[in-house]
């Protein structure tokens, strides 16, 4: 006897439509376009988000309270009296507007220090990535070694050096050390290796373009995401710099915001204590706003460089 075999019914996508066959077929491999949900990973990220946002929420909420309201109300909820704008006004006008002077000093240190560090790191990193010269490996070792040395370990030798030069208690004591960014140099170096094709540079040279013109018209545009990243790193490092100004500066008129706010906070201790915690909290809120705005405004440059080197030509 010969059995008649019925043709296998298949669906449009070519898979078997037989229920029994479907049950026996192995499960399709997981698609990377539809990532599998992980409860543990979601819970872990939620904890990180809370860890990051709760201090910020506490700062915003307590900036709306009076000095007495800080101690008579719950820390993560508003008080009956909303005095945010009054606190801002008192912060800006306290002691003849010294906060605005500290804010201007911080901007000065950031523009000259962080801006100069970004420029020097970009020039040096690009040169090390695209030019071959003797001693290149030695420079690479020195840069890696400089990254491994913490800044606090160099603070005292830097103070002794600047003291001999007569530059302590001047803005140059903060600006000059801020010009050196080994990590920024290394980051530009690594980024320039893949983001700036050597073929483009050779084509520009064959057309008669000099090295400076090639760098500023071609390479800078290709290095934009890396430059912005280094800029933000150096801006944040200079903006939050505390230990170096603390040992270098003794004149309050040259203090940055970090040292100045700590001086306000120290008024709560001692015999003639005059606590102004409401102004310290409000000043801290005003201090982080420029950094937040800078991150949000420059985020698009990061996004434009996320796919760099992801597709092989």
Automatic annotation (TrEMBL):
It holds the Pfam family BPD_transp_1. The chain crosses the membrane at residues 38-61, 107-126, 138-160, 172-193, 214-239, 276-298. Residues 24-33 have a biased composition (Basic residues). One of its GO terms (cellular component) is plasma membrane. Residues 103-298 form the ABC transmembrane type-1 domain. It is a multi-pass membrane protein. One of its GO terms (biological process) is transmembrane transport. Residues 1-33 are annotated as: Disordered. Keywords: Cell membrane, Membrane, Transmembrane, Transmembrane helix, Transport. Its main location: membrane. Gene3D superfamilies: MetI-like (1.10.3720.10). It is found in: Cell membrane. InterPro entries: MetI-like, MetI-like_sf. Belongs to the binding-protein-dependent transport system permease family. This is Carbohydrate ABC transporter membrane protein 2 (CUT1 family). It comes from Agromyces ramosus. The lineage of its organism: Bacteria, Bacillati, Actinomycetota, Actinomycetes, Micrococcales.
């Amino acid at each position: 006897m010969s059995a008649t075999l019925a043709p296998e019914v298949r669906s449009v996508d070519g898979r078997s439509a037989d229920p029994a066959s479907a049950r026996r077929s192995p499960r399709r491999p997981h698609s990377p376009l539809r990532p599998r949900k992980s409860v543990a990973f979601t819970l872990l990220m939620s904890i990180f988000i809370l860890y990051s946002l709760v201090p910020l929420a506490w700062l915003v909420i307590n900036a709306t309270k009076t000095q007495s309201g800080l101690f008579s109300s719950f820390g993560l909820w508003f008080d009956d009296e909303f005095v945010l704008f009054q606190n801002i006004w008192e912060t800006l006008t306290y002691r003849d507007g010294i906060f605005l002077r500290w804010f201007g000093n911080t901007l000065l240190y950031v523009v000259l220090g962080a801006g100069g560090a970004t420029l020097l790191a970009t020039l040096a990193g690009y040169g090390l990535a695209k030019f071959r010269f003797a001693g290149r490996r030695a420079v690479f070792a020195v840069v890696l070694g400089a990254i491994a040395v913490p800044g606090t370990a160099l603070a005292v030798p830097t103070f002794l050096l600047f003291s001999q030069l007569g530059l302590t208690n001047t803005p140059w004591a903060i600006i000059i050390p801020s010009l050196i960014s080994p990590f920024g140099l290394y980051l530009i170096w690594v980024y320039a290796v893949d983001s700036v094709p050597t073929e483009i540079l050779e084509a520009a040279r064959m057309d008669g373009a000099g090295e400076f013109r090639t760098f500023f018209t071609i390479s800078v545009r290709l290095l934009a995401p890396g430059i912005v990243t280094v800029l933000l790193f150096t801006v944040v490092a200079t903006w939050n710099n505390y230990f170096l100004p603390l040992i270098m500066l003794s004149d309050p008129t040259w203090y940055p915001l970090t040292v100045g706010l700590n001086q306000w906070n120290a008024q709560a201790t001692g015999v003639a204590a005059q606590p102004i915690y409401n102004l310290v909290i409000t000043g801290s809120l005003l201090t982080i706003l420029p950094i937040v705005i800078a991150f949000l405004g420059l985020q698009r440059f990061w996004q434009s460089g996320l796919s760099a080197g992801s597709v092989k030509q």
